[in-house]
Amino acid sequence: MLALGALTARGADSELRIPPLPIHLDLEGRPLAVVISGTVSMAAGRGEQVLRAGLNADLSDLQRNLTDVLKAGLDQNERCGERISVQNATLVPQAPSGTLTVNLHVERWGCVKALGREIVKKLVGGDGTVVVRLTPQVEDDDTLRMQAEVVSVDATGQLGDLLHSGQYGDALREKVRKTIVSALRKITDLKASLPPALRDMVDIRGAEFRDGGSGNLLLALTSEARLPEEQARALLDRLKSEVK
Questions:
Q1: Can you give the residue range of the structural domain that contains 166?
Q2: Same domain as 82, residue 173
Q3: Residues 86 and 172 occupy one common structural domain
């Protein structure tokens, strides 16, 4: 399943390197891979051992497929109502957050009956850009959540007026926010996909987005657990046996 790096003894300290572990997910019908790597270390404390895990989740596959993922959740084509099409979407690291930029084509159509027939007319249309700041947060119950804050909505002409005022603009902003949070929900539940021993020792204390190089998005997780020495070493032994 996974080959572990060497367990290196440094006096009372030990460190275990975790090479890349792919976790396969399905987001809006698209198969995606999140690659986990990192280290687990054990250091002597006062009458106990301190286990620390630092894990990096490589989200570059999500970045490559983000436009299609958001199209599946946002695109709509109502005959009498809203027609939304995602043109392009990017997600880039801006530690400790990530910045999502969605370029949309938006139209609003109305239908009226005249002389016994229905007339369909475009009321407004144009291109717009929605920018969302995404920030990982750790809840008190060791659960990882994604805060999504709409930073700006830009459009020109009548569409700009429509998006910046009234319920329509608020509804579109909320739709974009909910769609990206829903898409990231499976990714932020990474703990459930880890090997059991590693899952047992991961008590998430911190989370942030980082740049993994060349703009690749990493979700960095840190955790710490304090255990009696015998229990800590048994947990490390379980991890080594489970992932051979």
A1: 78-134+145-185
A2: yes
A3: yes
Three-class SS of residue 80? coil
User: Is there a single domain that holds both residue 46 and residue 126?
Assistant: no
78-120 pLDDT tens trace: 999 989 999 999 999 999 999 999 999 999 999 998 888 899 9
Q: What is the pLDDT of residues 186-227, one digit of tens each?
A: 777 777 777 777 777 777 889 999 999 999 999 999 988 888
Asked if the structure places residue 24 within a domain, the reply is yes
pLDDT tens, residue by residue, 54-86: 999 999 999 999 999 999 989 999 999 989 999
| Pair (181, 224) in one structural domain | no
- The beta-carbon contacts of 208-213 under 8 Å, at least 24 apart in sequence, are 208/95, 208/96, 208/97, 208/136, 209/93, 209/94, 209/95, 209/96, 209/97, 209/98, 209/134, 209/135, 209/136, 210/56, 210/93, 210/95, 210/96, 211/93, 211/95, 212/56, 212/58, 212/60, 212/93
71 in any annotated domain: no
- Does the residue 176 lie in any domain? yes
